[in-house]
Amino acid sequence: MRSFFLFFSLSLINCNNSDTLELNINDKIILPKHYIVNKINDQININGKDDELAWSKAIYTDDFIDIEGNKIPRQKTNVKMLWDDKFLYVFAKLYENHIWGDITKRDEVIYYNNDFEVFINPNDDVFSYGEIEINALGTEWDLFLNRPYRLKGKADSSWDINGLKSAVDINGTLNDPNDLDDYWTVEIAIPLKEIEKLNTSRKDEKVISGDVWRINFSRVNWDFEINNGVYSRKKENGKYLPEYNWVWSPQGIINMHVPENWGYLVFSENNEVFNMTNKLITQHILYTVFREITFGNLKYLKNLEANTSIEFKDFEYRNTTISCNFLKTEDGYIIELIDGEYNFSIDETGKIKK
């Protein structure tokens, strides 16, 4: 099988000899979860409670897992969703023995408190997405990113989601260390029109049944200390202890800004189904190779001379043989992946091309 890289190659490492590079990435491939969100005609009152009949029919996600996907969080978190012509509705239930918060100004760094976060992207790539963070006081932070931080993206906190609604309800006592609390809930109505504006492939089109977005949820939780009856993040040796990051669909790394690993959100009003197709699996394998070369054990390849081409040793994934090539270019690099059915490439920007 010949690759288009051969046309550009001045220096080639032959894939047929024993020195061929191996990728060894099978245990690093992330296949995200999915959620089929059902459409409703009922009106939802955003009050932090799931007391409408429609909510009783919505299905909760699996329990959140540690962000890397290996540890079970010490406190349970679940999310459920609904949608109508105007909004995507998100309801989160966060069990917490000590519910506290002290950030009250909008668009402050909310994750310095325990918080609930939504990451949402209407595109089929890693660019142009939004983030929403809310603490137990109901303080909001919404921000836009043109691309992930690790790919030189910049956050814009001046971006406000027009029409965003949210509310918090507490089953316990806020900022009271004298008792144990049960849980707090967050209810959010996210205007579909505002998120659809981030779609770079289509503009101002109405969301319809069968559309697929990317979404993930994170819960940041801190060890705390109490001084004179006031909660704060815990310090040791003058430094804050690291936060816990509990998520719906594991990221494989302590970084929520890896959009390719977010879950799939499937809008449905006609009993839509979702399958992790061979096409999607191939793309996730390619993303894994991209991360390994861009940030991982193979990042030294980025320092090769321009026009150097490498053909990796074929490997098996889910009974499919995968071929992969790398080309160092003047400005960056191109990675091509072929599985016998699909042929995709990705460059240093992180965008996949067919």
CATH class of the largest domain: Mainly Beta
Radius of gyration: 22 Å
Q: Provide mean pLDDT, rounded.
A: 93
Number of helices: 3
Listing every helix as H and every strand as E from the N terminus to the C terminus, the arrangement reads EEHEEEEEEEEEHEEEEEEEHEEEEEE
Count all strands and give the number: 24
Shape: globular
**Biggest sheet features:** 13 strands, mixed
CATH topology of the largest domain: Immunoglobulin-like
CATH architecture group name of the largest domain: Sandwich
Helix proportion: under 10%
Number of domains: 2
Distance between the termini: 17 Å
Class by helix and strand content?
mainly beta
Strand percentage? 35-45%
**Residue runs with pLDDT of under 50 for 5 or more positions:** 1-18
